[in-house]
Predict the 3D structure of the following.
Amino acid sequence: MAFLRHSVCTLLFWSLAVSYLVVASPQCATHNETFVPDAVLRVTESNISQSCYPSKATVLVNGTSPGPELRIKEGITYWIRAYNDMQDKNLTMHWHGLTQAMAPFADGTPQASQWPIPPLYFFDYEIHVPIGMAGTYFYHSHVGFQAVSGTGPLIVEEHGASPYHYDEDKIVFLQDVFVKDESTIEAGLVASPLSWSGESAMVLVNGKGGGSANGTACNASLSTIEVEPGKTYRLRFIGGTALTFASLAFEDHDLEIIEADGHYTQPYNTSYLQIGTGQRFSALLRTRPNPEKSTYYLQVESRERPTLTRGFAVLNYGLKPTIPFLPPNDLPLTLPNTTRGFLDYELHPLSPPKDFPTAEEVTRRITMTVHQRVLGPTIWVQNDYPWTETFPQEPYLVSLYNNNSLEFPSMERALANDGIDPISRAFPAQIGEVLEIVIQNTGADKGGLDVHPFHAHGAHYWDLGSGNRTYDQASNEVKIQEHGHPIQRDTTMLYRYATTTTNGTNMGWRAWRIRVTEPGVWMIHCHILQHMIMGMQTIWVFGNETEVLGKVGVPEVQGYLTYGGSVYGNENRWPSVVHFTDNEGSDAWTDNQ
Ligand code: C2O
Ligand code: CU
């Protein structure tokens, strides 16, 4: 791609030999009229009606929810421009599942990596997916509850050929609809006492859905997945829901899982799928050579909630419908109850992993204990600390650069305090460490237990599995030996093994292993949007001060350090940004450009 690079700043760059990713010399550049972004996302808020619910203020991307399908290739750097066209709301765009280690201000997290984009400004995101991470991802705003609708699919294609053969690929994007609007939900979640969002009123498939919610029928039109007989389709399931832990299946069609969270797996046959918010799976669906009927339902149901929400879509062998399909009168399928530990120990990498960290290599185990408190507002804490949009006052990385309100996290204090530094509220780790991160479910103040899809930014972890009570490395190792290599993931479920227990009882764990290789400030959080707003988020700082802040110095990143700083463009001003990688491509595209 061609654009001019203006020398508006001088860069002092310390080449850190810490990365297997592209480590190029950062360059300053003004994105003036000669700069053409690879894709443009325009975020607005408009009144629209979804499913069978009345119209309300909804965050849209390029006019729709979900937004356009974005396709990029691994190994190439892209620039995606995100416009905040909302009148009175901040915005960020997060590239869910991408590791973004090379472009520290482009992860799209308002509390960690950047100031949010002010109303009527835009920001250019630099995106680079390392070779080997092609797969299924999505993008979403990381501000408040906006991701409920301000989201869309992000597909990373291989540099070469896909290891699996299929005729076509199709997206199955899951979302929730709530009756209340996003601002009302957000305000209620931080209110004292809590005013709950309400349950999901419908699970949408590719933006549409009807079925029932808490026993009440919702007769809205359905999405269709158009297929032909005797073919193989790669269905890319994306858990873009806010709350719903979905169980789904097709009538008379099985699925063969081939990818989880951006990693190819050995093929695994299943008749149904469980998918939590933030998770992605690809599965091959082989259509019937001689279908007995022209339409088969896809049935999707919520799990682990007090009420049941059920939605449908249609696998259509016939002509494109002239009038939309509606939900069935009779239930086509009975979906199984929650399978705890679904696919744990069962999925294995397609090619043998080279760098799975063994138990012997683990240098430190950090147990992150999650707990719900009900004093005053209802909040979620991790090792006794919540993380909300009011703490910290600045994005964490910005604070570290500004060196004003936050001290760099202290390893010493963290080691003395179960891994978290109580002053900076971060979990610090040194480059070279091999962490075992155990997420521990506990009975809430009132005894309740919940399920949580835990998501990590910055790196994919090796998922060691899950179980009841507390983690025991020795017995889990035996299980791993028996089953074979785990896979890398970025979002996996913390289950509950009862709906209530006593306050503080350890009941349910999930364990990850991660090699700390990339310096940066990363979030680990539950992906249920309600829980995030209620404090269920943590910040991890990988690397020491020189490694984290030394990539580019303060004078060069000045434009990133203030709200609405010079890296944010608007009608009257081109942004001046830092290019952290080179190797630009020009073939990202969206389907509605
Ligand atoms: Cu999709 Cu921080 O998350
Ligand atoms: Cu949660």
Q: What stands out?
A: The chain has three domains: 17-160+553-590, 168-316, 359-549. Confidence is low (pLDDT under 50) at residues 1-23, 586-593.
